[in-house]
Amino acid sequence: MIRYLLNKMILSFNKKYNYDVQYQQDILQTDLGAFLKFMGFQTMSTHSGALPAAALYAARIRAIISEDCGPCTQLAVNLALEAKLDPGIVQAIIQCELAELPEEIALVVRFTELVLTHNPEADALREEILALWGQRGLIAIAFAISSYRVYPALKYTLGYGKTCTQVVVNHQVLAPKSH
C-alpha cells in the first residue's frame, strides 16, 4: 500500500513537471528503505534557509550544469521560473553571463563555480556571502551545490543520465555554458 501511495506521488511530480521519474520508480519498487532515504535526501535539496530565490537557484543551476544532466537542468530551470525568477536572470545563470546578473547573484555563480572546481579562491567569496546572508545563507548555498550534484550522479549510476545539450527558458533554447 505504501509503495502504491508513494508511486502516486512520483507520478504527480511527473505530470506537473513533465520529468522522467522512472529512476525513482525503480528505486521504490526495488528497495522501499532506499527510497525512503532518497525522500529524506530530497528535504535537504529543497532547503532554502533565508536565501533569496535567485541566489539559491544560481547555486542549484550552476551545480547541476556541472554534472551534465539535461533533464535535471531543465527541471531546475522550471523550478526557478516557478519561483518567479526573471527569465533573463535564469538565462544569464545558465549561460554564466556574470555581467548580466545582479552583483549578489553573480557572486553566487562565481562562488559556485570555484567550489565545484575546489579552487581556494572561493575562500574570499565565502566571506562576501557570509557578510550578505550569514551562516544560514552559506549553509543554504552549500546544500544547494552539494544536493543538486547528487541527482545527475544518481541517475547516471542507475543508467538514466542524459547529456545536457539544451535548456528551454520561456520558449528560448539555450546551450548551458559550463566551466
From TrEMBL:
InterPro entries: AhpD-like (IPR029032). This is Carboxymuconolactone decarboxylase family protein.
